[in-house]
Design a protein that fits this description.
Blueprint lengths: L4 E4 L4 E4 L9 E4 L5 E5 L2 E7 L5 E5 L16 E5 L2 E5 L4 E4 L4 E4 L5 E7 L2 E6 L4 E4 L4 E5 L9 E7 L2 E6 L4 E4 L4 E4 L5
């Protein structure tokens, strides 16, 4: 939403703005009903107080020694008790106490979860396994025709890598091959 987080109680909508009234780009809700949100150079979470009103806590404010550069949080994932916020040039890890920022040489286009793993597609091609602290390329950009992976779907213990302009690739854990369909 361009004005903040919206909450619907079955009758009315309530708006919870972020600092500076910036747009919410991503939302992730935990099993404990903590609502993580990402925006332009801002990320954090909402939790209900005793009056059941959502209160925002910025995690950006606790980030040390990180220079933001047009970082907009597009995806949020939870893995192994940590929350991962992904922008096109960097990612941030929150362990419940501390936030750390990372700006890899090649920025992540998107983080994806599939088959109990987390992956990252890289800007300009390339597909990586993300182990929570680093990116390990498992499919080169050349194997994907230098195209961006925009979605990942599990398929028979394999992964379908959907690209921006070059169709679908089947990744078996070792290599990716073009997967031809009638839509091609």
């Amino acid at each position: 939403n361009n004005r903040g987080l919206l909450q619907f109680d079955g009758i009315r909508w309530k708006l919870y703005p972020l600092p500076n009234n910036i747009a919410v780009r991503s939302v992730y809700i935990t099993a404990a009903n903590r609502i993580y949100v990402g925006s332009f150079e801002e990320f954090g979470y909402f939790e209900a107080n005793k009056e059941n009103v959502l209160v925002y806590t910025s995690l950006k404010e606790s980030l040390k020694n990180f220079a933001f550069h047009d970082d907009e949080i597009w995806t949020i994932h939870e893995k192994s008790g940590k929350i991962y916020f992904q922008s096109f040039g960097s990612y941030f890890v929150y362990d419940g106490k501390e936030v750390k920022g990372f700006r890899p040489d090649r920025g992540p286009l998107y983080f994806h979860e599939a088959n109990k793993n987390m992956y990252a597609s890289l800007l300009g091609g390339g597909f990586c396994l993300f182990d929570g602290s680093g990116l390990k390329e498992v499919v080169s950009g050349a194997a994907l025709n230098q195209d961006d992976v925009v979605a990942v779907l599990p398929y028979d213990n394999k992964l379908l890598l959907l690209t921006d302009a070059n169709g679908i690739f089947m990744y078996d854990g070792f290599k990716a091959v073009s997967w031809k369909t009638e839509a091609d």
